[in-house]
């Protein structure tokens, strides 16, 4: 019996080993395929490191974070903060921690910590029991911030600002080009600005108050993001009516409010990553829009992202209001570049643009019985001009629709990549279970 077992076991073991090897090879091939798909058409920009980051240029709401070996020092000011906490995620128990707060809202802190191994972490500043500021921080024999070198690139968009046509301005206000709706929307915008910014003199504070208004009263439309988005849903009249939209509509509304307040603003189109590492920015894709306004007093452009500033969500037909955090109001150039890449600045001077005559409906009139001969040459010219005007409006509408379509496709592609990564994880788990079963079979073969 013993000899028989000894003779039978090698045959069984060989068979199971072959199956195990084939399984492992298949797992590697499949994993590489999915990982390749998940990262296809993406090129990481070249990185360097730096030892400091300032969260905002706002003197009343900022933190300056500096690193020196295992030590991280933080100083800044949050004028409305009742409590401030500094931490790292995944959680690392610091070997040293000190914090000093002052009556004017300024503070100084120092944290000393060393993880078990090198890697990427989140540096968190929690204000009034809510995470308000966060940024990625790298540990490689000391704390450092990754610099993807997009800071200078982002500022270049202000060197060439594209101003849209009067037709486009009207379509962005009301997608059907109805003059009465356009006029009504403009009045609504002025009334909102008057109510929200009363007793505020500074354009800077007006812009902050309007961003807060948008964040607290409108929601990001996840249903539209996963379904169909077009010009009808991002025009100002639609956003005001529905109280929701995607980034294109929210930014369009906020920019219109700034213009109504007499503040020059531009729409910023570019790329943002928010489900993967924030440094993995697509080289040519555009999947996000936000806003910048010109602060005359300091002669500079101010970044602000109303969508990432605390906007709530709308999903499955329900509203989930957000809470304004101001994380992206006057955000520092480097802090913005961590997860935003600016490609184009577009001005939409809503209150300077005139409603083209072609947007007005022409009432039909009954011609008199006896009329003078019609000047055929003049009629042909008038008809040609009318056709040209109609073509111009049609072209502007198609251009906007194409922009919306391309940006939303790119946004959906982020979802696709996330699903691929999830598939890799799930497949890895299944393969691990299969390997465990095979190993158990081998061991049973040895026993038998």
Brief digest:
This protein has 448 residues and is α+β, with helices and mostly antiparallel strands.
How would you describe this protein?
This protein is α+β, with helices and mostly antiparallel strands and 448 residues long. It has helices at 2-38, 151-155, 166-173, 179-196, 203-217, 222-226, 231-234, 236-242, 247-260, 333-337, 376-447; strands at 48-50, 52-54, 61-68, 71-78, 84-89, 96-101, 106-112, 119-127, 130-139, 143-147, 161-163, 219-221, 244-245, 265-272, 288-295, 300-304, 312-315, 318-320, 340-347. A hairpin with a 3-residue loop joins strand 9 and strand 10 (143-147). Helix 5 packs antiparallel against helix 9. The longest helix has 72 residues, at 376-447. The model is unreliable at 1-12, 31-45, 275-281, 362-387 and 414-422 (pLDDT under 50).
Mean pLDDT rating? 77
* DSSP strand content: 15-25%
Overall strand count: 19
What gap, in angstroms, lies between the N and C termini? Answer: 11 Å
Give the helix level as a range of percent. 40-55%
Structural class: alpha+beta
Radius of gyration: 29 Å
Strand arrangement across the biggest beta sheet: 1-10-9-8-5
Oligomer: single chain
Q: Pick out the low-confidence regions.
A: 1-12, 31-45, 275-281, 362-387, 414-422
Largest beta-sheet characterization: 5 strands, antiparallel
From the spread of the alpha carbons, the general shape counts as globular
The ordered H/E elements are HEEEEEEEEEEHEHHHEHHHEHEEEEEHEH
The tally of helices reads 11
